[in-house]
Specification:
With 498 residues, the protein is mostly beta strands. Helices cover 1% and strands 51% of the residues.
Length: 498
Amino acid sequence: MSTTPRDPHRPVAHLRPPRNWINDPNGLVFHDGHYHVCYQYNPYGATHANMHWGHFRSPDLLTWEPLPIALSPTPGGVDADGCFSGNAVSDGDRLVAFYSAHREDRSFQHQPVTCAVSHDGGNSFRPRGELLIPELPEGCTMYRDPYVWQDGDGWRMLVGAALADGRAAALLYDSPDLENWTYRGPFAARRPEPVGGTEELTGDGWECPQYLPAADGPGALIFSTWTEPTGPMRVAALIGEEHDGHFEAGPAVPADHGPDCYAPALLRAPGDRWLLWGWSWEARDEAWAVADGWAGVLTLPREIHVHDDGTLRQQPATELLALRGEHTIHAEGATHGPQPVDLGSVGRAFDLTARLEQTAGNAGLRLLTTPDGLEYLDIRVDTDTGELVVDRDHASLDSRARGGSYRMPCPSGQPVDLRVVVDHSIVEIFLITTGQVLTLRCYPTGQGPWRLQARSAPGTRLGFAVDAWELHPLVIKEPSTGTVEPAPPTGRSPRAST
């Protein structure tokens, strides 16, 4: 399923179909021995339009099988103009997908809930054909993105919303049978407030609410912030506990500190392990992505939990260690600046661990992607501000790529442990010390080998221990017979954009 010739920016170890547009991960569920990952998908082009649900499944998170498109809009039906975001649950021998039904003759902000059922392991889904929850609660100015989970003998659902009184909300329903749903009111609702110590706000509305419950101690409500008129912004979380159908939590915190992660979704895996995938959108001009024939990628699957100290922590799923190939860099030492220390060469897809120790100033790693060193990505620790800084202002010599510098809190006075996964145009930086993560996209133009350096400001000592491994691609099976792309809707351009 690879493209020929090889697109230098298309990731190999991150899940996405071979072409066209994708966005939110949907329908994440473990069923009959397989992880199922669906996603918003436009089968006809690399723009946000014609929303279907694409579908992969895997027994091990490493080998993935494309299944037939799970959900398609029904001409004249309740979802005639798009099967938008939602999730899925395993209920005995069936999979039930819940999703936002979009029709252009309704307000774009009102996407009521419907569902579809599979009795053959996700190979086909039968749509309900009518709305599951036809009436929206009074006072909703935005309504979409159901998230359903089992709770004891019953079921519960959150729906993302904005309320007429100015609060963003996750609305709570419950059901004994997945058919009859009773509205219980806002599970959580807030007026816009800062997310952590950032200038980002929790938004006018919440998209894709996800609930990470905990048997003991705090759980997490994860949501994507939506603001008029810019639309999607960032991902945030509330850490707290539920009491009588209301989630009581402290201030909002970032769920990903980077600019290019949105709409993360949860999957409850065997062994009471929780996994999360997000959508990493493009950080380049739309015309560039359209010309390349693809846009969007899912993040790595991440193990996620709320730590005993009340912080949300993420790390790459343990299975991904099996993608490590040749051990290309092993380097230990120190630099005092201003001369950098060359650590070795890496390919366009690699998995890196680093321990950095410094007492003051700015120091860290630089990934040089052109022989002359004019194109580079910096990952450095700023002890003066107590932050890890990721700077992509020089990460592409192509002016169509976005720049910017991004930060996440990083404790001073102790070693900093990092895990960095670079896969062509996506970079995921895990601060193992605190369990925080930062996702961004960059588009290097350099054709030769990439090089890694340790660098420090003059007068600043940096001790380092760095290891890097080649990152093998995921194994994507050939689609089975009958897995075909649908024909474009009659009278609609394959490149239509909403």
